Amino acid sequence: MILIADSGSTKTEWVVIDGKEIYRFFTVGFNPFFVSSQEISDELRKKWPSKIDKNEIYEIYFYGAGCSSEQRCQIVYHGLKTVFPQTRIQVSHDIEAAATGLWGDAAGIAIILGTGSNSCIYDGRKIVENIPALGYILGDEGSGAYFGLQLVKDFLNKEMPENLYKKFQNQFPYNREYILDRVYKKPLPNRFLAGFAPFLTENISEVYIENMVAEGFDLFFKRHVLPYKNYRHYQIGSVGSIGYFLADMLRKTAQKYGYSEIKIMKSPLDGLIEYYQKK
């Protein structure tokens, strides 16, 4: 059996491939910037499906947010190796999952718009160019954490339209001290901020929200797509919940920059399953 994982900062989706049988389950996100090897192994043991024998997993392909260096990859690797001591394990960045899941053996631009954001050019075999993501404080334009931050700032500064201010207050009954504590003192602030993102999809017909999303996606394209030389020569696709649930706005932004079509997937896993079954 093969185990594939697509891990963001919020959640990890796991797929066990046993011939033609597919089993799926979820854990929290395993971004090595925010979790330890011990936390990874503890969570995986707790959530592992009892009907699947761990000893029959002979290969693991883990694709994760934050797995951007050998040091970070080792945190995940050791967490997995504790649970699967006899298994061959490969840990890669989540942008590789996006690229492979979207395009398989074809070339294209892959973008991630989930809790965080990222992009790359993929030549059908490997990533050949990547504009480094700077995380939720310095970057992550167009992501759940980015939009959550904009919403929270406007809420705390009372710069939201009055009707949306009241809606936001009723949906998220947090006071100023609680929000500041979660952002500045508690772990996983990016996940906390991304938790406000559903407010966007629920109120996308409001001009304030529509403008916020349009500006966020526009900024993402300007910083993470347009700088690639000859970017228009490549097809483009997106994975992640933000791009998926705000697909109409994403298509408008892509069209603005010359793309008549953009492939949009919530998760790259279906593409990855097909890819590894062929291999």
Write the layout of secondary structure elements.
Layout: E1 2-7, E2 11-18, E3 21-28, H1 37-47, E4 59-64, H2 70-83, E5 88-93, H3 94-103, E6 108-113, E7 117-122, E8 127-129, H4 135-138, H5 144-156, H6 162-171, H7 176-184, H8 189-194, H9 198-202, H10 207-224, E9 236-239, H11 241-245, H12 247-256, E10 263-265, H13 269-278
Parallel strand pairs: 1-4, 4-5, 6-9, 9-10
Antiparallel strand pairs: 1-2, 2-3, 6-7, 7-8
Task: Write structural notes for this entry.
By secondary structure, the chain is α/β, with parallel strands linked by helices. It has a domain of 106 residues: Nucleotidyltransferase, domain 5 (2-Layer Sandwich). Helices cover 45% and strands 20% of the residues. The chain contains 13 helices and 10 strands. It has a 5-stranded mixed β-sheet, sandwiched between helices. A 5-stranded mixed β-sheet has the order 8-7-6-9-10. The relative contact order is 0.14. The model has no long low-confidence stretch (mean pLDDT 90).
